[in-house]
Amino acid sequence: MEIKKTIQDAINKQINAELYSAYLYLSMSAYAESINLPGFAHWLKMQVQEEIEHAMKMYDFVFSRAGKVVLDKIDQPQTEWKSIQEVFNDTYEHEKKVTEMINSLVDISREEKDKATELFLQWFVTEQVEEEASADEVVQKLKRVHDDPSGLMILDAEMAKRINHKEETKNGKD
Ligand code: FEO
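A: This is the predicted complex of the input protein with MU-OXO-diiron.
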């Protein structure tokens, strides 16, 4: 069944939101790099890749339903933060907003009785639980470190170990 215009427009909007998320995290990564936290910068770059994957899943879905992908301009993200703690507080808040967006997409697909889209979105509903949890985990770790420079260096080294989903799957961890 061909995708309805309402759903198509809503998914196109979400493609833009996912690409904006990628852009925001890349801006955060550049900030982390600028304050000599390469591990945090790496973690955020991995997050950029995940956001692009999210956008591409939606992009492919629109085509698989004989729809039209329309790309809009991506807003400029914030470029400065007060601290790495503030970066991750914002990451957590941003992911909560994305969860709301995904939930309202589910609502629209239900209103339109589009079961295929509703089912497709279930992956994103689950993914958002993970997205919020991983951002919050870093927020909590940073709170514990507080202003301790050696604790921050240890945490930075830990953040440098993040690998993306694809590599996890390749290594049999997923
Ligand atoms: Fe695409 Fe971080 O949600």
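Residues 18, 21, 51, 54, 95, 98, 131 surround MU-OXO-diiron (CB under 6 Å). The first helix runs from residue 5 to 34.
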